[in-house]
């Protein structure tokens, strides 16, 4: 069968001028001056070919195919070329080399609410956005009630969207997009919007699209979502597809290779979120008794974070939390100080907060920790992947032989206490 | 590295009832000059309509006066011209009542200048759309001209009222008016589309357009000067020739003749028509040639 998407030897070249700007952006003045200066330059050094160092291949030699009904993820770090690929597939920009063949009606969502106009009402914007995404007015009229119900904005249909809350705005925008019915759907991280409940609704909608046999190309940083929705994923690095295969393996390729040491200095991390009145400085994981970094399932363990207040003022109470994620980024549990009624006071001097386990309930495997700190109303500091560490097989279940100890890659991640007894056998009468 | 062939896809990912393939899109590197792509534009006609509606609605929502604005602007200019050119400079109007003379000249001029100005800025203004979604790019300047046309229609109401007030009965010439307006639109579209593209490619071009439009008004004496009546007063042959090369001169004279009365300058209209068609193709073809760069440059 013909693939829904076939990408052959795709490349995109950007000319970068010496000043770091793209050369195809010009002013009339410069162009005229440049042309006027040409004879002089030519006389001085003869004709020189353009400097290849100024060329930047955002994509080069990209090949892949997506079969009809397949849901494929595209992952890669910032600047790897994902957005360029998306832009070419959505026909926003043209490639420099190669060819893309799309068999089917294409709908592409690079953002939600493209073309929304703040002065227009919700109703008018549904029509506007719908036609921009390629729906006919009849189609929109038919689905109008459904869209409005999905967005939960019935009461505000005739209000200009500039008066909407940001949540309402995003819900309405996504609702229109969600009712697009193309055969090939190209989606760029639009799920990273709205509150948790709405995100779930969007995910469900994506899942439905996949089950309905639509071809979906999904670009995201959200690894658990990629793993959930896509069977296959491509990893893009520096403009090339470096891996294409089961999404689990693709995600692993994306993660940092080496375990970060068990103590991690966080002061230099710049990829953090939050207001920043309070900052995490360090995280440290250890066995409870020794100082050795050998963390074992079922043994005592502790996580110690160091944080301080950066703005002047008295010491205040904050909430501190550690999010424990599995190696694929799925959240397993959260250890929050306020769950157990503890609010550490943090002042200018760096303060250490300890979370400890008598028996660590994590099975042997690799885990990642996010740190979170907040005050009454604000998120103060969030550091993702603050620590990546391995848990080694240990004695959560004391009577099990070593080789039969549960492992995170086979048995899930969490160890729980339970009983198993044989009940007296029942004779069938 | 290449992706694994189709057989490598997991067996449990079945292509369940794939919908029959109707559309096939092939994306390839740009190939230089392209045709206008009118067929595709026609497929996107609803989007075009939506854009026009949006522009019109937004314009009238943002202003206190709303739709009255489209009428007020030419009305004020008409008053100014009547005092300035009619009473003070005493320029000939060919026997036509002064307010009617100036209004019938100003309406097509406003249509033209609004269309060219808004179309020139339209592509830069639609940057958010152009970098996020595909549609035929020509739809952007086209819809700007469409919105200017809606304004023009509204302001024509004023002309109709004035004609009634002065007791001017419509003649068969009125039938030529749509043709004249169509040619004005075509000319504006050609210029606006070309300028829109130049605006993107050369960032400082946008300072040129308002200036050029303003100059254009002075280069179009038909707005405030009845050439037929004052042939003798027109300065030299060269200047007259230059003025006649400006299609708007014949177009505005023709529009006035069609609405207020007078002889339609068919020869001039023919030349203007040819020039407009040429401008239209030149502007659109240049636009099509550089449109692939829009998303990278904006």
* Continuous helix count of chain A: 9
CATH class of the largest domain in chain A: Alpha Beta
Q: How many DSSP-defined strands of chain B?
A: 1
Q: Which residue ranges of chain A are poorly predicted, with pLDDT under 50 across at least 5 consecutive positions?
A: 18-24, 257-261
Portion of residues within helices of chain A: 10-25%
- Percentage beta strand of chain B: under 5%
What is the chain-wise order of helices and strands of chain B? Answer: EHHHHHHHHHHH
The tally of structural domains of chain B comes to: 1
Choose one word for the global shape of chain B.
globular
Question: Total number of helical segments of chain B?
Answer: 11
Count of all domains of chain A: 2
Mean pLDDT of chain A: 81
Helix content of chain B: 55-70%
Q: Give me the secondary-structure category of chain A.
A: alpha+beta
- Assembly type of the chains comes to heterodimer
Our Rg estimate of chain B from Cα atoms comes to 24 Å
Number of strands of chain A: 20
| Rg of chain A (CA only) | 27 Å
**Terminal CA distance of chain A:** 58 Å
Model regions low in confidence, pLDDT < 50 over at least 5 residues of chain B: 1-16
Strand proportion of chain A, as a percent range, falls in 25-35%
Provide structural commentary.
The complex is a heterodimer of chains A (429) and B (298). With 429 residues, chain A is α+β, with helices and mostly antiparallel strands. Chain A has 9 helices and 20 strands. Chain A has 2 domains: 196 residues, P-loop containing nucleotide triphosphate hydrolases (Rossmann fold), CATH 3.40.50.300; 149 residues, Distorted Sandwich (Coagulation Factor XIII, Chain A, domain 1). Helices cover 23% and strands 31% of the residues of chain A. In chain A, α3 crosses α4, α3 crosses α5 and α4 packs across α5. Chain A is globular and about 75 Å long. The termini of chain A are far apart. With 298 residues, chain B is mainly alpha-helical. Chain B is built from 11 helices and 1 strand, in the order βααααααααααα. The interface between A and B is large, with 72 and 53 residues. β4 of chain A pairs antiparallel with β1 of chain B, so a sheet runs across the interface.
């Amino acid at each position: 069968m013909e693939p829904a998407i076939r990408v052959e030897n795709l490349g995109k070249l950007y000319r970068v001028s010496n000043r770091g700007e793209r050369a195809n952006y010009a002013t009339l003045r410069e162009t005229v001056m440049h042309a006027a200066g040409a004879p002089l330059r030519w006389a001085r050094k003869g004709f020189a070919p353009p400097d290849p160092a100024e060329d930047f291949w955002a994509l080069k030699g990209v090949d892949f195919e997506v079969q009809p009904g397949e849901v494929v993820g595209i992952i890669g770090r910032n600047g790897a070329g994902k957005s360029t690929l998306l832009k070419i597939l959505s026909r926003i920009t043209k490639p420099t080399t190669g060819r893309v063949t799309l068999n089917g009606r294409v709908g592409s969502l690079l953002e939600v609410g493209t073309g929304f106009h703040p002065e227009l009402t919700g109703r008018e914007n549904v029509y506007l956005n719908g036609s921009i995404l390629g729906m006919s007015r009849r189609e929109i009229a038919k689905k109008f009630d459904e869209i409005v119900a999905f967005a939960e904005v019935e009461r505000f249909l005739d209000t200009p969207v500039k008066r909407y809350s940001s949540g309402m705005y995003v819900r309405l925008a996504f609702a229109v997009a969600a009712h697009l019915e193309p055969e090939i759907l190209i989606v760029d991280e639009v799920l990273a919007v709205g509150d948790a409940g709405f995100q779930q609704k969007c995910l469900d909608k994506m899942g439905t699209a996949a089950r309905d046999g639509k071809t979906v190309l999904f670009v995201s940083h959200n690894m658990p979502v990629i793993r959930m929705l896509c069977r296959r994923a491509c990893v893009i690095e520096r403009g090339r597809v470096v891996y294409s295969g089961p999404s689990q393996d693709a995600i692993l390729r994306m993660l940092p290779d080496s375990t970060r040491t068990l103590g991690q200095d966080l002061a230099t991390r710049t990829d953090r979120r939050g207001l920043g009145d309070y900052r995490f400085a360090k995280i440290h994981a250890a066995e409870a008794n020794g100082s050795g970094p050998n963390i074992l399932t079922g043994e005592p363990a502790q996580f110690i974070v160091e944080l301080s207040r950066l703005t002047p003022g008295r010491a205040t109470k904050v909430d501190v939390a550690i999010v424990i994620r599995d190696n694929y980024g799925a959240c397993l549990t959260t250890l929050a100080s306020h769950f157990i009624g503890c609010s550490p006071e943090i002042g200018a001097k760096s303060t250490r907060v300890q979370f400890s386990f008598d028996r660590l309930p994590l099975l042997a495997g690799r885990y990642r920790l996010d740190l979170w700190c907040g005050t009454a109303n604000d998120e103060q500091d969030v550091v993702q992947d603050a620590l990546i560490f391995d848990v080694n097989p240990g004695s959560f279940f004391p009577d099990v032989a070593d080789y039969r100890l549960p492992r995170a890659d086979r048995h899930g991640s969490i160890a729980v206490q339970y009983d198993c007894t044989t009940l007296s056998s029942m004779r069938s009468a | 590295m290449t992706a694994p062939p189709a057989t490598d896809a997991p067996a449990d990912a079945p292509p369940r009832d794939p919908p029959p393939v109707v559309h096939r899109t092939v994306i390839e590197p740009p190939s230089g000059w392209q045709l206008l792509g009118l067929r595709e534009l026609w497929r996107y006609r609803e989007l075009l309509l939506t854009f026009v509606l949006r522009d019109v609605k937004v314009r009238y929502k943002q202003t206190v006066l709303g739709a009255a604005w489209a009428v007020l602007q030419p009305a004020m200019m008409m008053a100014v011209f009547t005092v300035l050119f009619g009473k003070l400079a005493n320029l000939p109007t060919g026997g036509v009542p002064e307010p009617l003379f100036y209004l019938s000249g100003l309406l097509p001029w406003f249509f033209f200048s609004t269309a060219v100005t808004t179309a020139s800025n339209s592509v830069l203004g639609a940057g958010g759309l152009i970098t996020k979604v595909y549609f035929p790019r020509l739809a952007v300047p086209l819809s700007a001209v469409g919105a200017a046309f809606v304004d023009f229609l509204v302001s024509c109401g004023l002309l109709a009222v004035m004609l009634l007030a002065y007791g001017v009965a419509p003649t068969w010439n009125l039938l030529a008016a749509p043709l004249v307006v169509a040619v004005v639109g075509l000319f504006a579209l050609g210029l606006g589309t070309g300028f829109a593209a130049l605006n993107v490619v050369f960032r400082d071009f946008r300072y040129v357009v308002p200036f050029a439009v303003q100059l254009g008004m002075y280069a179009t004496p038909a707005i405030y000067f009845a050439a037929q009546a004052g042939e003798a007063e027109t300065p030299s042959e060269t200047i007259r020739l230059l003025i006649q090369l400006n299609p708007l001169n014949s177009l505005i004279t023709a529009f006035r003749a069609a609405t207020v009365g007078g002889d339609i300058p068919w020869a001039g209209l023919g030349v203007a028509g040819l020039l407009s068609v040429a401008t239209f193709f030149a502007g659109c073809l240049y636009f099509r040639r550089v449109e692939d760069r829009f998303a990278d440059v904006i």
